[in-house]
Amino acid sequence: MDYLYFSGLIGDYLSVVLASFFLFILLFSDKRYKIHSFIIFLSSILAYSALSGDTSQMARAVTLDEYIKDCEISVLWDGVTALILTMFLVFDKNAWKQALLLAFAVLCHSMIIYDLTIASSLMSNFFYSFYDELIILIGLLQIVASLNGYFNALRNVREFILRSRFYCYCFCKGLFPHKKGKGRA
């Protein structure tokens, strides 16, 4: 049990948390939050299934070439997701935040590839040292960027529960009519 194992577990579980968070927004929120939620939900599920495992990328990869290949796949995955989000900027006002965060993820992956293949500089060494933490931070910032959609979804669920409770109360009240007492004379 080392650092790579635990950071990999956190990274893998974070993608599941992201998928469930954006699925909740997708199902219960207003239309203005649904587009970017669907794109990120689908991206998280597909990325988790493509790169799934019980450890981080470095622990999964046996050789340096496999690790670089995993980073290249992550660059392509996050880049395509960011491009798809930018296509929907007209329809979804929150997509630019998510696209910007994913562009930063592409930068992190690219700096790792640069550090391992071309040359090691002070900047690329920083990204290499804090790679897992930066990726986890990006996932958490994606959640923070969509908190309005989450609160909107919570409000919609609460209203649905209150409405159904009220209708159930009215229905039960109509089923069992109360006997009217005799009035005063």
What descriptors fit this protein?
mainly alpha; 185 residues; 8 helices
Give a structural overview.
With 185 residues, the protein is mainly α. The protein has one domain (3-150). 79% of the residues lie in helices and 0% in strands. The protein is built from 8 helices and no strands. It has helices spanning 3-28, 34-50, 57-60, 64-87, 95-117, 122-129, 131-145, 147-175. Helix 2 packs antiparallel against helix 4, helix 4 runs antiparallel to helix 5 and helix 5 packs across helix 6 (122-129). The model is unreliable at 54-58 (pLDDT under 50).
Q: In brief, what are we looking at here?
A:
Helices cover 79% and strands 0% of the residues. The chain is built from eight helices and no strands.
In percent, how much strand structure appears in the residues? under 5%
- How many separate domains? 1
Average pLDDT level: 82
Oligomer: single chain
How far is the N terminus from the C terminus? 85 Å
Unreliable parts: 54-58
Helix content: over 70%
| Annotation field: number of helices | 8
Number of strands: 0
The main pleated sheet reads as: none
- The run of helices and strands is HHHHHHHH
What global shape is seen? Answer: elongated
Radius of gyration: 24 Å
Secondary-structure-based class equals: mainly alpha
Explain the layout of strands and helices.
Layout: H1 3-28, H2 34-50, H3 57-60, H4 64-87, H5 95-117, H6 122-129, H7 131-145, H8 147-175
Helix pairs in contact: 1-2, 1-7, 1-8, 2-4, 4-5, 5-6, 5-7
